[in-house]
Automatic annotation (TrEMBL):
GO terms for biological process: response to symbiotic fungus. It comes from Coptis chinensis. Residues 1-23 form the signal peptide. GO terms for molecular function: electron transfer activity; metal ion binding. The chain crosses the membrane at residues 149-166. Keywords: Copper, Disulfide bond, Electron transport, Glycoprotein, Membrane, Metal-binding, Signal, Transmembrane, Transmembrane helix, Transport. This is Phytocyanin domain-containing protein.
């Protein structure tokens, strides 16, 4: 009855799977990472950030750091005390609340001259989010469409696997 047990497990998984919230991890600046002379406005423009998602600031340790600041600090590049900086070179920030968030680099003139600062808007946690960040749809309706198609494909694949196992 091993195959029957497998079928039950797959059936349960196929029902539960669409309700699971998958957090997205955003590598700030993608392959460029956290650096000067990068357009973080353009980088953030097409992305949807939700509560529970993560920002990863990646850079050579010592070259940069990460400060969370307020809107004024962001606009004027006001750097908080050095001991409040994240500085591991692989700094992961979990977006815990919705609203506007601002980050900057406190090293030298990286913020003022290098433009090394990031502003994002965090939305409430998404109920269903199965698509990768790079293909995140712009509107809610198309997002639901993508999820439905993805889910149907998922079920068809599951059924195919189950048939193979049972035969
Ligand atoms: Cu820097």
């Amino acid at each position: 009855m091993a195959s029957m047990n497998l079928f039950i497990v797959l059936a349960v998984v196929s029902v539960v799977f669409p309700t699971v919230v998958l957090a997205t991890e955003f590598k700030v600046g993608d392959d460029s990472g956290w650096t000067i002379k990068f357009d973080y406005v353009a980088w953030a423009k097409d992305k949807e950030f939700h509560v529970g998602d993560k920002l990863v600031f990646s850079y050579p340790p010592g070259a940069h750091n990460v400060h969370k600041v307020n809107g004024t600090g962001f606009k004027d590049c006001i750097v908080p005390p050095q001991n409040e900086a994240l500085s591991t070179g692989n700094d992961v920030i979990t977006l815990a609340t919705s609203g506007n968030k601002w980050y900057l680099c406190g090293v030298g003139q990286h913020c003022t001259i290098g433009g090394q600062k990031l502003a994002i808007t965090v939305l409430p946690a998404a109920d269903v989010k199965l698509d990768a960040p790079s293909s995140a749809p712009a509107s809610t309706s198309s997002a639901i469409g993508v999820v439905k198609i993805g889910y149907q494909t998922f079920v068809v694949v599951l059924m195919a696997i189950t048939m193979i196992v049972l035969v």
